[in-house]
Write a structure and sequence with these properties.
GO terms for molecular function: DNA-binding transcription factor activity; transcription cis-regulatory region binding. InterPro entries: DNA-bd_HTH_TetR-type_CS (IPR023772), Homeodomain-like_sf (IPR009057), HTH-type_TetR-like_transc_reg (IPR050109), HTH_TetR (IPR001647), Repressor_TetR_C (IPR004111), Tet_transcr_reg_TetR (IPR003012), Tet_transcr_reg_TetR-rel_C_sf (IPR036271). It comes from Streptomyces iranensis. 65% of the residues lie in helices and 0% in strands. It has a domain of 129 residues: Tetracycline Repressor, domain 2 (Orthogonal Bundle), CATH 1.10.357.10. The longest helix is centred in the last third of the chain and has 24 residues. The chain is an all-alpha fold and 187 residues long.
Length: 187
């Protein structure tokens, strides 16, 4: 196998899916690639840089989604964009943990275009910024909870298992309704 940056990241993501974020190590990755651990430092200065590249690669499906088209309903777009972000985080084991705390450096142009779409659709700039930030953080939090859920509801406490999909959709609807109210639309 030819080892380049993309190969290392791809193998690291496969390792993530197999063992989880806590067990991903440069030692383990080097073993998987059949190389000595220092060879990885040719491509990544440290584990943090590797994790950042992994997070960016894991977000590729969301980053490849179509940008909003002029005249598209911003509410529908906002909802679908947030759902797409959630689906992408769920594609990888510990996807939300991998993504949490990263900076979207490679996606800044796309984010600016999404913001411009919302503003052109009549959403005040500050509300658009806060809505995108809130939706992102809400989604990461929902996926963190879902990926940490071991399925162990506490029957003794009378709590039913959590339906993560329904909880996400309810929160998304509340957020959208609040944004519509702030913008002056009818929820």
């Amino acid at each position: 196998m030819k080892m380049n940056r993309e190969t290392v990241v791809g193998e690291a993501l496969d390792l993530l899916d197999e063992v989880g974020l806590d067990a991903v190590s440069t030692r383990r990755l080097a073993q998987r690639l059949g190389v000595e651990q220092p060879s990885l430092y040719y491509h990544f200065r440290n584990k943090k840089e590797l994790l950042s590249a992994m997070a960016e690669a894991a977000m590729a499906p969301h980053a490849a989604a179509a940008l909003p088209a002029p005249g598209e309903d911003w509410r529908e777009w906002f909802t679908q964009n947030t759902r797409g972000f959630r689906r992408t985080l769920l594609m990888r084991r510990d996807g939300a943990r991998l993504h949490a705390g990263t900076s979207p450096v490679a996606d800044l142009d796309r984010i600016a275009r999404k913001m411009a779409f919302l503003v052109a659709s009549g959403v005040p700039e500050r509300e658009a910024q806060m809505a995108m930030l809130a939706a992102g953080r809400f989604t990461v939090g929902c996926v963190l909870e879902q990926q940490a859920d071991t399925g162990g509801a506490d029957p003794a406490a009378g709590l039913p298992p959590i339906d993560h999909e329904s909880a996400f959709e309810a929160g998304l609807a509340l957020m959208l309704n609040g944004l519509m109210h702030r913008v002056g639309g009818t929820p």
